[in-house]
Amino acid sequence: MQDKYFNNFQTDVSEIVLPKKFTFPFSYEPHSLTKIAAKELQQLLSKKSLEKEISGKMYGVLVVKNKNNELGFLASFSGQDYEGEEPANFVPPIFNRLNKEGFFKKGEEELRQINSRIENIEKDTEFITLREKLKDQSKKADSEIKNRQLAKHKSKAKRKEQREEAMISLSPAAYDHLNEKLSKESRKEDFNYKKFTKDWKRKIATIQKELSVYESKIQKLKKDRKQKSILLQKKIFDQYQFLNIKTEKKGLETIFEPIGNPPSGAGDCALPKLLQYAFQNNYEPISMGEFWWGKAPKSELRKEGRFYPACSGKCKPILGHMLEGLNLEDDPLKQYTAKDKVIKTLYEDDFIAVIVKPAGLLSIPSKEIKDSVLLRMQKKYPKATGPLLAHRLDKMTSGIMLISKDLESHKYLQKQFMDKSISKRYYAILAGELKSNSGEVNLPLTVDEDNRPMQKVSFEDGRKAKTKWEVIDCKNDRTLVKFTPITGRTHQLRVHSAHPEGLNAPIVGDTLYGEKDERLMLHAQFIEFYHPKTEEKLSFEVDPDFTL
After folding, report:
1. Where is this region: Disordered (predicted)?
2. Which of 302, 419, 438, 463 would bridge with 296, disulfide CB 3.0–4.6 Å?
């Protein structure tokens, strides 16, 4: 029987050479078979009405070979909810949470009922009345007790004054008589004050006792809800048992144990679902690709039809197990070498150096790559103290960097960065033409937790990010611009260029927010700062090695 999830290619692929290794999903150029599979799926997706769609989805294709040595592909999407009828035969989820007869929906209904019972108690008029009464009476008690205290302190002060005057004006016998009288007044006032506070405490306690009947019910329900929620979550996690080509199983909790709790939606992304189905049905994985289709979310940068790497937050730990045993393409990061990258020195004295970092060289070492500006500066200046790098540039960004040779110089330069007295200027080539010749982008940025190191726009959680820009030249649907960053957020210029609410024109060669090219066309062209010892204003500029 033909597997409905196995899609035969509509295009003739008989002459296409198969890849020798399976796609490395976190950094890849899609194989021609992957592109054809994606195109055929996109043709189906384009027939679906997306007018009411709030946001698009990440889709995935997995080119496979069946037992009969026939080529085809499997299709999937990230998540479980799909608006309307599915336009293609997407492989089933690893665990179907949407099954109305399944334990998840039943457990969800139990939690809903508990929430409803809590809500009903909290809306009970008697409960609301008691809560308001307690609030009002507590406020009234505090006020009246405070007034009594003030009156008590005034009476005490007045009695003290009377005693002092009596010692001067009265005879000893008359003074003793007055003192006894004042002492009785004091004891009576203390007694009345204590009785007054006890009466208020008794009133408040009576209300609290009535209120506690309701609150104890709420607390019991919340405790029950928490226990049921934990058990339900545990049961859900147990359903996610991921296979690899060696048919080895590993559960979600086990996979994420070294990191922490599994994030929401882990296991529901496109690629884990595709690989799971392939391994369950003895299909041989050949190549893969994930692409975005539909409306882009406001915060993340997604372009319809563009391929993207698998997410790092949810998928990387899972795929670490699922890809075991596959002949995988090499991780580009581990194959990377910067031995041919030469650092140029523009200026140097006993305190600082001004260098030009080439594109492709890291500023600081990563887990995979040690060669970097920092490592080379440490070797060049073995007697230097302090952090050496006054700031950083992205790996694929070229341009001017400041080096401090001692801790005091580093602090002085850092202060200038903090108070924005250092001026910087970047040149970049953008993919597309801009609507005006100059302007300003104000889009707050924060890290995209599921897709590190990518950043995203967030008006709720993002940090202020501001960039001034000016067009220098435009040719062949590309624009050379000058950027003046007012703030210095991670990937600021790259996101401000690519985002639809920014310039809506990604920097050429930006593999994270745009499309691959010979290099990232971004260059730190100019810097102006005060020397940490002489306090002389210094400026340096170096033009990029790219042009329109």
Report:
1. 138-164
2. 302
